[in-house]
Design goal:
Elements lengths: L1 H35 L2 H32 L3 H33 L4 H4 L3 H21 L2 H31 L6 H31 L1 E2 L2 E2 L2
Antiparallel strand pairs: 1-2
Helix pairs in contact: 1-2, 1-3, 1-5, 2-3, 3-7, 5-6, 5-7, 6-7
Subunit structure: Homodimer.
Subcellular location: Cytoplasm
Organism: Yanshouia hominis
Length: about 220
């Protein structure tokens, strides 16, 4: 019975890895589309959102099957319940990568002319998403905590990008809506960082039973 359960847990891990890879790809494509003006990549990021939604349904179904059929306890229960929480954040990451791409598709944007740090912000959030999933699969508490700490880096980069955009508007108010569109995109990246932080916090809970400083398990 335990062997079968372990096989199903391994299947859950593999499904989460696949969903995480889809999220990473969506963000990477959305970012490259933004920085290089590549609308083909933007379209791929939008298409990936549907795959991420489907992956969420598959992982949710597997988690519920494990809960109902295997009746796990203690650490196993925390691992499965954490996965259920994580996929919600992963699905929202896919939504926000799609939102960025839709803006790239609909308006002309030149980040290099307005916010030179938006690329740094994008790369930082991709790293957070990758590391948060790796931390879950490897049960790496130290890596999960580094992701949580990295959210401050993304938040500070958002403030830097915001300052760059507002300074540009003061100098040249006739630039129109492009700086405001880029500010919205920067906000999407900040939210992606928040979701990666949420994932890392659930990884911490799955390992320790502690979530946000409170004993839950």
């Amino acid at each position: 019975m335990r062997n079968r359960f372990d096989e199903q847990l391994e299947s859950l891990n593999n499904s989460l890895i696949r969903m995480g890879a889809l999220c990473e790809s969506a963000i990477a494509n959305a970012t490259k589309a933004l920085l290089e003006g590549d609308r083909t990549l933007a379209g791929r990021a939008i298409e990936a959102d549907s795959e991420i939604d489907q992956a969420e349904r598959e992982v949710e179904s597997l988690c519920l099957k494990l809960l109902l059929q295997q009746q796990p306890v203690a650490r196993d229960l925390r691992q499965i319940s954490s996965a259920l929480k994580m996929i919600t954040d992963m699905e929202r990451i896919g939504d926000q990568a799609s939102d960025i791409s839709e803006m790239v598709m609909s308006v002309e944007l030149d980040p290099a002319a307005h916010a030179i740090h938006i690329g740094d912000m994008a790369r930082a959030t991709i790293g957070m998403v990758t590391d948060s999933i790796d931390a879950y699969v490897r049960r790496d508490l130290a890596l999960a905590r580094r992701v949580i700490e990295a959210d401050d880096v993304v938040d500070n980069l958002f403030l830097t990008v915001k300052s760059e955009l507002l300074a540009g508007l003061k100098i040249n108010p006739a630039e129109g809506e492009a700086p405001l569109d880029l500010l919205m995109i920067a906000k999407y990246y900040e939210r992606i960082g928040d979701h990666a932080t949420n994932i890392a916090e659930w990884v911490e809970f799955s390992i320790t039973g502690v979530h946000k400083g409170e004993l839950l398990g």
